[in-house]
Specification:
Elements lengths: L5 E7 L3 H9 L1 H7 L6 E8 L6 E8 L5 E12 L3 E6 L2 E10 L2 E8 L7 H20 L2
Antiparallel strand pairs: 1-7, 2-3, 3-4, 4-5, 5-6, 6-7
Helix pairs in contact: 1-2, 2-3
Length: 137
């Protein structure tokens, strides 16, 4: 199993203030934080500060499965950086100005159950959902 961090990226065509708001506000998180059209984010809580916690309830729309995805923030720099830990893993999300909008780069430690490619694909799909949500907002 590959233990190298996995990276996903997207460029969102929107102002940084809107990107930041949609990334962090629970009423927006529930609109994009899922990796498949058969799933949804039914609830979200977010205390965006170092030491603060977040939790997103992810559930299959048919009711067959659900889980809470959550963690604790370790670094927050408004409009620039969010880092957090969950289940012994670390995630770093960088927000950068780009000519086309805001470039989001997310790097995370892999888990040992699903393949590297499945994890990368799932996180990329969630990031792509985020991009669609913001750009259609």
């Amino acid at each position: 199993m590959n233990n190298e961090p996995i990276t996903v990226q997207a460029i969102v065509r929107a102002p940084i203030a809107m990107v930041w708001e949609c990334w962090n506000a629970p009423e927006h998180i529930t609109q994009w934080a899922f990796a498949s059209d058969t799933w949804e984010a039914s609830a979200a809580e977010n205390d965006l500060r170092v030491g603060g916690n977040f939790k997103t309830r992810m559930a299959a729309k048919d009711g067959s499965a659900a889980f809470d995805f959550g963690g604790t923030y370790t670094a927050v720099r408004e409009h620039a950086l969010i880092e957090y830990d969950f289940d012994g893993r670390h995630v770093k999300t960088i927000f950068e100005d780009a000519p086309e909008g805001v470039k989001i780069t997310q790097t995370f430690d892999p888990e040992n159950v699903n393949s590297f490619e499945m994890q990368r694909s799932g996180w990329q799909t969630i990031l792509d959902n985020f991009k669609k949500h913001v750009e259609s907002h």
